[in-house]
Design brief:
Blueprint lengths: L11 E4 L7 H15 L7 E7 L5 H14 L2 E8 L2 H10 L4 E5 L8 E7 L8 H11 L16 E3 L3 H10 L12 E5 L8 H8 L3 E5 L18 H10 L3 E5 L6 E5 L4 E2 L1 H14 L7 E5 L4 H8 L4 E5 L3 H11 L4 E2 L5 E2 L9 H15 L3 H5 L7 E7 L9 H14 L3 E7 L5 E8 L2 H18 L2
Parallel strand pairs: 2-3, 2-4, 3-6, 7-8, 7-9, 12-13, 12-14
Antiparallel strand pairs: 1-5, 4-5, 9-10, 10-11, 14-15, 16-18, 17-18
């Protein structure tokens, strides 16, 4: 397959108004994807578009609209809405295509375009490659006649529809009355829907990160900056804190003491609860190579398996579909529950944690640490050129590290899919040894990158 030049590990992403995140590229995406998803029958064809709160969304959105309508596709604009909501609405509205304009947890200067098929799942590499092939065609090819141009309308009820979908993931008898909750929306796509859903479920809600201005998305807030939710939980003496990222497809939790709970612990908690309730499918959980060895041991102790994939929730989802698993995710906080959603959904994952808080009648601190994490060390090494991972010294350093761990840990060295970085991770029971192994590999990579 021809290497993709626009799409990366999660759609198209980059700094706004610089290639590939320009209005022209967005226009070409609309033209190319519209041509591919417009079938030959006479019905009207529909694409739905959501976005987060970045200033550059006002540039990307109309460019996409121009591309889609020029090839005869109707468009419904949701405005600010979480990524998982766009995926859900694509399927529920029987749209031909769904688009989310977001750079997730990145700062405001970046933006991105994620595409969902009519089934609500992210597009395959093969389909993205087909779109790219059309993007490089002339802009005048395949255009609709003046009479067949697409129509555009804003859909003001999209947020309300998503809130009702989210609430319906819990039993009708479930109530969060008496729970004091801090929700940090990272000034992003969930700034309206998340606090509203929690309030309507009965919680006492303290909301932070809900004043987007186009520039402050993820700024000292959200899942990548849990300091904010920790401080708010302590200030308001909340029972639980929830921090979402800019497009609300991932989260971290904070207990009443200010202890941060990552995606691995959340998956362990949900897996344990669902196993007791007879709800867990597939015989275990799907996670990435970055999930802690402690999670694997925790699940094994309950007769459950942990299947690992490459980094990225799309890989997790693919394996879940293949093996009929209904729970998977990443340590970074993408939690995928296929009973409810086709992609990571931070808000729905938070509701599952809160539901267990109510059912167990325990404090969040008693649920927060399902297992003792194995010491894990990380280091990133930036490189300007070449292929450091093919260098003999790097390969030897990795092999030596694996020998020294002697089966009591893991080493993972990989190239970033979004930046010129080599990401190094090692974990094992001996924290001092793990740290030394990471430093040794990083040193070899730096030499190879010169």
């Amino acid at each position: 397959m021809k290497k993709k030049s626009y799409f990366g590990t999660d759609g198209i992403r980059g700094q706004a108004n610089q290639y590939p995140m320009t209005a022209e590229v967005a226009l070409r995406v609309g033209l190319a994807a519209g041509k591919l998803f417009r079938s030959t029958d006479d019905r009207r064809h529909l694409v739905v578009i959501g976005k987060d709160t970045r200033l550059s969304g006002y540039m990307i959105e109309p460019a996409l609209v121009a591309g889609f309508t020029s090839v005869g596709m109707d468009v419904r604009l949701f405005g600010p809405l979480p990524t998982p909501a766009v995926a859900m609405m694509t399927r529920s509205m029987r749209a031909d295509l769904g688009v989310m304009i977001s750079a997730s947890h990145n700062n405001f200067a970046d933006n991105g375009i994620k595409l969902f098929g009519p089934d609500g799942y992210k597009l395959s590499d093969a389909m993205e490659a087909r779109i790219e092939a059309h993007m490089d065609e002339g802009l005048q090819e395949g255009l609709a006649t003046p009479k067949q141009l697409g129509r555009v309308a804003r859909m003001d009820e999209a947020q309300a529809r998503y809130i009702e979908i989210v609430k319906a993931t819990l039993p009708r008898t479930m109530s969060f009355n008496g729970l004091r909750v801090v929700i940090d929306c990272a000034h992003g796509a969930s700034y309206k829907v998340a606090p509203t859903a929690l309030y309507e479920l009965g919680a006492e809600v303290k909301e932070i990160g809900v004043s987007p201005n186009g520039f402050n998305i993820n700024e000292e807030s959200g899942s990548t900056y849990p300091t904010a939710v920790v401080a708010a939980v302590r200030e308001y003496r909340a029972d639980i804190g929830i921090a979402l990222d800019g497009d609300a497809d991932r989260l971290v939790i904070c207990d009443e003491r200010g202890q941060v709970v990552d995606g691995d612990q959340i998956m362990a908690l949900i897996a344990s609860a669902w196993t007791e309730q007879g709800r867990l499918q597939g015989g275990g959980v799907v996670a990435t190579v970055m999930s802690n060895l402690g999670l694997e041991r925790f699940l094994a102790g309950r007769g459950l398996g942990l299947e690992r994939t490459a980094v990225g929730d799309r890989h997790v989802v693919a394996r879940m579909r293949e093996g009929k698993f209904n729970l998977g995710g990443e340590a970074s906080g993408h939690i995928v529950m296929s009973d409810y959603s086709t992609t990571g959904d931070g808000l729905i994952a938070a509701l599952q944690v809160m539901a267990e808080l109510v059912r167990s009648n325990k404090r969040m601190s008693a649920l927060a640490r399902q297992f003792e994490p194995v010491p894990q060390k990380h280091e990133n090494v930036r490189f300007a050129h070449g292929k450091p991972l093919e260098h003999t010294a790097v390969l030897e350093a990795i092999a030596q590290a694996e020998t020294r761990l002697n089966g009591a840990g893991r080493v993972l060295v990989r190239a970033s899919g979004t930046e010129p970085l080599i990401r190094i991770m090692a974990e094992g029971d001996d924290e001092k040894l793990v740290g030394q192994l990471v430093r040794d590999i990083a040193g070899a990579v730096r030499i190879a990158a010169q």
